[in-house]
Records
---
Amino acid sequence: MNIKFKEECIIVIGTWTKSIEEHKLLINCISSLSLLDVDICLVSHYPVSSTIQSLVSYYVYDKYNESTPEIKNEDFYWNYYPIQALFKYSERYYSHHSAVLTLQLNGFSLAKALNKKYVFYTESDTIIDPEDLHSFYDVYEKTLKNDKRAWFAPYIYTGDKIVAIDGNFFFSEVDFYLTYI
């Protein structure tokens, strides 16, 4: 991996670890990603131990944990042309989309303050096999080589059209995210 990759990128991990099992997953997530030797920022609405904080380069804690339990049986859209996001209602969960978007915004804002150009965003229950860590560099190289500003994994296809993306793992230019998302 080249030096530019390490200088320009930061990994932002969104977390809401409440249980011991979730803390173990977070530690495993950080441990695997630290092998990339790229700055890591942990963003959370829940406090984490100083031990976990010492495993990352930056820790952003936001005690405001906004969720929207008042939304019942409704999907809702967020529009910012040309992007239209559909948030699906789930009977099993309250809507925590705004809390997750706030975590992402906090991480991207820190990245901008650090003069980072690119962010890899993931969540704390994502464990990357060390043999697959090259994928981070591959996404970085492919996105820039194709003159793109972000990379999102498709989540739902209808025919040949992507109608939803997976927000659990993505790569984006900092200014693109802060301007359009």
---
Amino acid sequence: MNDPLIPPQKPPKDIRELPARHRYEQIKRALDLKWRRRDPMADRMMRETVDALWDAFSKDPWTWCGMWTLQLDGNGLLPGPGRDEAPVARPLDGLVAECFKAKDSKLGEDGGSPAIAVPVMDLNGRPWAVFVARAATPFNEVDARWIEQVVKAFRPIKRPDTLQPLKSAAPVPYRPRGGAPG
């Protein structure tokens, strides 16, 4: 009903003005439409996922987001697309290791900031990558469920064995303590 004392609400013009749930809905819808028209390619889809989520949540409240792929030997992670810092290879530990082991989203801390880690699964239900976001404020289960819906599009894609570290970053190979340089 139209109340003459209450001015009508204008719809937001920018996705960043929407509540988080609506932002996630728009991101998922836009990515689904984009991916429906193209052959699924993991590298491109990872980059588009990170870009879309970063554009919607960057700096308010997110401080970083990116994808990590499991090294073929399973001992560490290679950087995939990331925003707001150049990622380097890292050991499989902490929140990301819990996410891989449980094959489920995890809320906690990564790099000293509130974080969320969401696994990217292959056709057989095995994680081959993880989406990680850090924020100034803690994430919640709503964030986890929506990000899971976004990365669910990766399921029909076979685990890519050819993923390479970002060319713009100079990744440092992970070596366990006391291990010989490779």
